[in-house]
Design goal:
- It is a single chain.
- By secondary structure, the chain is an all-alpha fold.
- Helices cover 66% and strands 0% of the residues.
- The protein has one domain (2-72).
- It is built from five helices and no strands.
- The longest helix has 16 residues, at 31-46.
Length: 73
């Protein structure tokens, strides 16, 4: 949607009856970009990026205490 509206919004790819009264008049080229920017800002503010250990780290912790692993290395 972003590529179509922002990239092709004011070209001949969009019919004239949609392009002139809606996209050009209401500056619809900026709306999808503003929505995406708002979503990114929201996620940066409210998403907890520090989570539990990944599956690989959990598996490593399980194997770390095994005796056979120490014998191999």
């Amino acid at each position: 949607m972003v590529l179509v509206i922002t990239g092709l919004g004011l070209t001949d790819a969009v019919p004239k009856f949609i392009r002139e009264p809606y996209i050009a008049r209401y500056s619809m080229k900026a709306w999808p970009v503003i929505i995406i920017w708002g979503k990114i800002v929201y996620e940066l503010l409210f998403t907890d990026f520090v989570r539990q250990k990944s599956k690989i780290d959990q598996q490593f912790e399980e194997f770390k205490g095994k005796d056979w692993l120490m014998k191999i290395s």
